[in-house]
Amino acid sequence: MHEQVQEVLNKLRPFLLRDGGDVELIDVDDGVVMLRLMGACGNCPSSAITLKAGIERALTTEVPGIKEIEQVF
């Protein structure tokens, strides 16, 4: 599952990099993906929206068994 999550993040990464940010996969545990938003995404007021509406939707759609995403600071 870890590799599947990383593949989806690699597809999303160019969009984050374009805005000066990035994402780091910390862990996947029992369907919960722990991510760290970095660069401009780390302190952006819209980071919660990016995380839930963008990244979480992509992961839950493309990787079976993913339940939710938690942001690690």
List keywords for this structure.
single chain, 73 residues, alpha+beta, three-stranded mixed sheet, 45% helix
Q: What's this model, at a glance?
A:
This protein has 73 residues and is of the alpha+beta class. It contains two helices and three strands; from the N terminus they run αββαβ.
Number of helices, where a helix is a run of at least 4 consecutive DSSP H or I residues: 2
Query: What's the helix-strand series?
Result: HEEHE
Question: How is the biggest beta sheet arranged?
Answer: 3 strands, mixed
**What structural class do the secondary elements suggest?**
alpha+beta
**CA(first)-CA(last) distance:** 22 Å
How many beta strands in the DSSP annotation? 3
* Low-pLDDT ranges: none
Q: Over the alpha carbons, how many angstroms does the gyration radius reach?
A: 11 Å
Strand order of the largest sheet: 1-2-3
Tell me the fraction of residues in β-strands, as a range.
Answer: 25-35%
Average of pLDDT: 91
Described by the principal axes of the CA atoms, the overall outline is globular
Percentage of residues in helical conformation: 40-55%
